[in-house]
Design a protein that fits this description.
The complex is a heterodimer of chains A (655) and B (98). With 655 residues, chain A is an alpha+beta fold. Chain A has 30 helices and 17 strands. Helix content of chain A is 42%, strand content 14%. Classes of the chains: A alpha+beta (655), B mainly alpha (98).
Chain lengths: 655, 98
């Protein structure tokens, strides 16, 4: 993968090469193999390259034969060979073997309708000199990032926010509503970001900038046309799609490795990749010193079964706290879990082994209903439908095996789920999680509450659900919410692209091949969640492919230590400095006495539940994020209401 | 010989429980309006992990062991309910400061 950045001027002011280089430098980690730029009187494009296909000739920005269409692009078009054949048959001449060039000619041939033909993970900008327009697009599921900002008709765009800020022309300010979304959904929901005035192009959307105006259009919408029954050839179709999705994602002029968690999803991907790969597959895992989080036994079993060359990054005491500032700098957002940190360390391990591209099992839990949240939603629904049942609420006791057994049973455990909302609420499936996450807001300062006013992220989400959402099945609604509120803005971003690209590693996600998604979305819900057995169709298909212990294994949530990562022993100096009351007061987002209470509980080893662990991670990461991107405000209230203009690019960003 | 520590009254148990709950579960929201008969769970003051911590407090503070089948909203659902439960459960032996 790569990184892109650019500026389009409404007037003929030009874009300096120095400014473009500064933007590119800010995202150099995304493309350590090369850099390039193009600038004329209206538009400047810059690019940093991670060479994966046509290493010698794939440099960007890339233009057509006449120099009228330029592209900067981050990602992979997995069906580029098929598209190339089609375009060549229509008379287009190619100079390289790269998928980048396919984009140039596809735009010439089909214009914006080209997007419907792409199978891939991508974010790109095409500059059409004749039309005087810039065309931006992002893949269907938001695997790759694309941000933009507008000022006086000028457009700024980039793979990461830090490149926009490095332009020196985009305001550095926080968006209280963006932060409030993080503390509700785990991430700001595109187009909102935690930065005021900086937008994320939504997954499945494209944008056209012309004459100083930006017009955004959705070209792909999630849909769930569930069949009444599973077709007789469903497993055969799934077999073909899985093989095709993995095979396409093995295309590269460099070796492709695999992430191996020990669960069924990544194990399937690695098994298929090992069978198709021309190399001995390299697989990579994280393991934890904490046995409750460790999956190494399953990882080793799969690595042996698929005969991969396996490498492990063991996460020990102090590792997460050590890298957490870097994690936040790359994620560019406050976090509510430390879970991205081990993935940051894992991508470092991949890089140390000379691998640039890895396959991941991400997306399967959303496509094939792997999370306990889906079971929880169905049990809660049944409890509402049969309130007299004593047996149904007890089913909730079987959920979330990563929580201490004594705490996940009985009236209080059940009350947490059953009191969270009624089925008539379109957000019903996710209300327990949203309401639990929102307890972070108990730590807000009075002035931050005032800055938020009457903002209600749940009401806003309800208001932007797609037409007909209420007619979808409960599982389809739950899946849609999971994909749009967590998968795209958090899992694919903070845990996915950002942690991988921090070390110049490209992640590929076969389960988010749109053909596979569409196949699964059209299956009846019970094909995926049969009773309380998750990913049923995938398990049936995988029989014989993987060790039985892995196929029959229940979904283990991926978790990393939160409070113990920072308070198991003396906290690192930066933690103490950031949680100091005076420092918190300067930032102005959290209430210092409340945080002091939390710190006391952490030191005493009493902050054991989600509420306090998520609050600690949220507060720490917000303070890190603020310091990294906004600097310490002179007056907290000024930062909250007026933002802080950047006087200069901080060394850490411009380096 | 008489025990020098008098049994705790219902009021004393209520006061200590209220202080504990405010210090432990509402330290971040001192403005939270919590009356003695307000629900602790539906309102989100305590979650299921907090229940385990609360039971530990009842044990250490009042010497009151809570059996698994006694972990119910009827017994632990509000400050008042907790005080009545502890007072009644341990009254036979006398509830004393632990």
């Amino acid at each position: 993968m790569c990184g892109l950045a650019g500026i389009a001027r409404r007037g003929p002011g030009g874009v300096s090469a120095e400014r473009l280089e500064r933007m590119a430098d800010a995202i150099r980690h995304r493309g350590p193999d090369g850099a390039g730029l193009h600038a004329d009187e209206r538009v400047g494009l810059s690019h940093v390259r991670l060479s994966v296909i046509d290493l010698a000739r794939g440099a960007q920005p890339m233009a057509n034969e006449t120099g009228t269409v330029f592209v900067v692009y981050n990602g992979e078009i997995f069906n580029h060979l098929a598209l190339r054949g089609e375009l060549e048959a229509r008379g287009h001449l190619f100079r390289t073997r790269s998928d980048t060039e396919v984009l140039v000619h596809a735009y010439e041939q089909w214009g914006e309708r080209m997007l419907e033909r792409l199978n891939g993970q991508f974010a790109f900008a095409i500059y059409d000199r004749h039309a005087g327009c810039v065309f931006l697009a992002r893949d269907r599921f938001g695997i790759l990032p694309l941000y933009y900002a507008e000022r006086d008709g000028d457009l700024y765009f980039a793979s990461e926010v830090k490149a926009l800020l490095a332009s020196g022309e985009v305001e550095r300010a926080l968006d209280p509503e963006g932060l409030d979304e993080v503390f509700t959904f785990w991430a700001s929901l595109p187009p909102r970001t935690p930065f005021r005035g900086i937008r994320a192009l939504e997954p499945g959307c494209c944008a056209r900038w012309q004459d100083g105006r930006l017009t955004i259009r959705r070209y792909y919408a999630l849909a769930y046309p569930e069949a009444a029954s599973e077709s007789a050839d469903a497993l055969e179709a799934l077999d073909e799609l899985l093989h095709s999705a993995v095979r396409l994602r093995l295309q590269a002029d460099v070796p492709v490795g695999g992430y191996l968690s020990g669960g069924i999803d990544s194990s399937i991907v690695c098994a298929l990749a090992a069978a198709c790969s021309p190399h001995v597959l390299r697989t990579f895992s994280v393991t934890f010193e904490d046995p409750a989080l460790d999956e190494s036994m399953y990882q080793q079993a799969v690595a042996a079964a698929v005969r991969s060359q396996h490498a492990v990054r063991r996460i020990g005491s102090g590792d997460i706290a050590r890298v957490f500032p870097d994690v936040v700098r790359h994620a560019e957002t406050p976090l509510v879990r430390t879970a991205p940190a081990p993935l940051y360390l894992l991508s470092g391990l991949v890089g140390e082994h000379g691998i640039k591209v890895v396959l991941s099992g991400e997306g399967s839990d959303e496509v094939f209903l792997g999370y306990d949240l889906f079971k929880e939603a169905i049990i809660r629904l049944l409890c509402w439908q049969r309130p007299q049942s004593r047996r149904l609420p007890q089913l909730l006791d079987g959920l979330y095996p990563d929580i201490a057994p004594a705490a996940r049973k009985g009236e209080f455990w059940r009350r947490y789920f059953l009191a969270a909302g009624a089925p008539g609420d379109p957000l019903f499936s996710h209300l327990p999680r949203f309401l639990l996450t929102a307890r972070i807001k108990d730590f807000y300062s009075a002035e931050f509450r005032a800055a938020l006013g009457r903002f209600d992220p749940l009401a806003e989400l309800r208001g932007r659900l797609p037409h007909g959402f209420g007619t979808w099945s409960p599982l389809a609604r739950a899946t849609y919410l999971e994909m749009t509120t967590l998968l795209s803005p958090y899992l694919l971003s903070s845990q996915g692209d950002r942690m991988a690209m921090a070390h110049g590693i490209e992640l590929r996600v076969p389960y988010l091949d749109h053909r596979l998604f569409e196949f699964a979305a059209a299956l009846p819900g019970r094909s995926k969640l049969r009773g309380l057995r998750e990913k049923d169709v995938l398990r049936r298909w995988a029989r014989g492919l993987l060790p039985p212990a892995v196929i029959g294994r229940r979904k283990q949530p991926y978790r990393a230590p939160d409070v113990p990562a920072f308070f198991d022993g003396r906290p690192p100096e930066y933690v103490e400095a950031l949680l100091d009351p005076a420092s918190l007061a300067r930032t102005g987002i959290f209430n210092p006495p409340a945080v002091a209470g939390l710190v006391r509980r952490c030191r005493e080893g009493r902050a054991l539940g989600f509420r306090e662990s998520q609050a600690l991670v949220a507060i720490l990461s917000t303070e890190l994020w603020h310091r990294e991107f906004l600097g310490a405000p002179v007056q907290a209230s000024a930062a909250l209401t007026a933002g802080v203009k950047a006087a200069a690019v901080p060394a850490s960003v411009a380096a | 010989m008489r025990d020098p520590t008098p049994p705790l009254t219902l009021t004393a148990i209520t006061d200590r429980t209220r202080t504990y709950i405010r210090d432990t579960f509402l330290y971040m929201r001192p403005d939270w309006p919590l009356q003695d008969d307000d629900p602790l769970f539906g309102s989100g003051v305590i979650d299921s992990i907090g229940v385990m911590e609360l039971i530990g407090f009842l044990q250490s503070e009042f010497g009151c062991t809570v059996a698994e089948d006694e972990i119910t909203e009827r017994n632990l659902g509000s400050i008042g309910a907790i005080a009545r439960f502890v007072h009644a459960k341990c009254n036979a032996d006398g509830v004393r400061a632990a």
